[in-house]
Design brief:
By secondary structure, the chain is an alpha+beta fold. It has helices at about 5-15, 15-25, 30-40, 45-55, 75-95, and strands at about 30, 60-65, 65-70.
């Protein structure tokens, strides 16, 4: 069963720019400059989205001189994926379980 934490994570990932960022970070660790170049977002807008992703535990930061690198925390996405896999498994047998009408 999905929890409120899972629902919050789905809300965080439902934003198109944040989903794009997560997709990019799934391929490589990137700094803010790279993410601005790849997404076309303004730096302040991107920073706000990165804050949301950090607070949700989806990404973590790694300082490198005057740059901040971001990397994805795959275990967070794997946990959400497992919840959806459990729902799909349950749904596959749900057709066999029919509650009688009163």
């Amino acid at each position: 069963m999905l929890t409120s934490v899972d629902a919050d994570l789905m809300r965080v990932l439902s934003d198109p720019l944040r989903l794009r960022i997560v997709t990019l970070l799934a391929r490589e660790t990137l700094c803010t400059t790279h993410l601005v170049e790849e997404t076309g977002a303004k730096q302040t807008n991107l920073s706000n989205h990165m804050k949301v992703l950090r607070e949700a535990g989806v990404v973590e930061t790694e300082p490198c001189g005057r740059f901040t690198y971001y990397k994805l925390r795959p275990e967070v996405l794997a946990g959400l994926s497992a919840q959806f896999a459990a729902l799909a498994e349950s749904a596959s047998t749900a057709a066999e379980n029919r509650r009688a009408c009163p």
